[in-house]
Amino acid sequence: MSKALIIIDVQNDYFENGAMELVNPIPASENTKKLLKHFRKENLTVVHVQHVSPEGAPFFAPGTSGVEIHDNVKPLQGEKVITKHYPNSFRDTDLLAYLKENNVTELVITGMMTHMCVDAGTRAAFDFGFDCTVISDACATRDLEINGQHVKAADVHHAFLAALSFFYAKIQDTEEYLSA
Questions:
Q1: Is 132 considered catalytic here?
Q2: Are 63 and 13 in contact (CB under 8 A)?
Q3: Model confidence band, residue 70 (pLDDT cutoffs 50, 70, 90)
Q4: In 3D, which of 5, 18, 29 has the Cα closest to residue 137?
Q5: Does 37 qualify as catalytic in the annotation?
Q6: 130-162: per-residue pLDDT in tens?
Q7: Kindly report the CA angle at 84 between 83 and 87, in degrees rounded to 5?
Q8: 139, 157 in Cβ contact below 8 A?
Q9: 106-to-69, 112, 132, 133 alpha-carbon distances in Å
Q10: Of the listed 117, 119, 132, 137, which one is catalytic?
């Protein structure tokens, strides 16, 4: 059984002064950085997923600094970077083929946004037969609104993680994962 760390969309537009600022992206990226350091030290597979929107989109626009992967988790030479255009990291990408080529069966998932790309990618990964662990404090999201009701980022985050933990993934925090 081989493990891979999947870092989804930890990109500049989600940070302070970005086009789609999230709640607490710095702590999430710092926890992702700890996991990244661990995976690199253990010589395990690391995959960076980078969302690129169409030209003129409100965030992750091509050629902007906002689309770039954040400095806290910058890929090293030789680390796999998957470019995606949809919330699901597997859709129209070579992620599945890459993981299979590397005999990966277990995914440790981090990233942004919990309610969108982390959720979509985790559910797809499970459906493809991967054993998934989502690192709760290495993910971030934002406040949402539905039918005039404001939903705080923390509630969005916890609701989506709770839903994933019901069937799709084990949910752990960074320290819990690293100390296992």
A1: no
A2: no
A3: very high
A4: 29
A5: no
A6: 999 999 999 999 999 999 999 999 999 999 999
A7: 150
A8: yes
A9: 24, 20, 6, 8
A10: 117
Kindly list the distances between the CA atom of residue 80 and the CA atoms of 49, 75, 99, 144, 173, in Å, as whole numbers in the listed order.
Answer: 8, 8, 10, 32, 24
Question: Catalytic residue among 13, 33, 84, 139, which?
Answer: 84
3-class state of residue 162 by DSSP: helix
pTM (2 d.p.): 0.97
Give the pLDDT band of residue 15 (cuts 50, 70, 90): very high
Helices 119-127 and 153-167, axial angle in degrees (round to 10): 10
- DSSP H helices, 42-152, are 95-101, 119-127
Please tell me the distance from the alpha carbon of residue 175 to that of residue 180, in angstroms, as a whole number.
9
Does the annotation mark 9 as catalytic?
yes
DSSP string of 22-57? PBSHHHHHHHHHHHHHHHHHTT-EEEEEEE-PPTT-
CA distance 143 to 155: 8
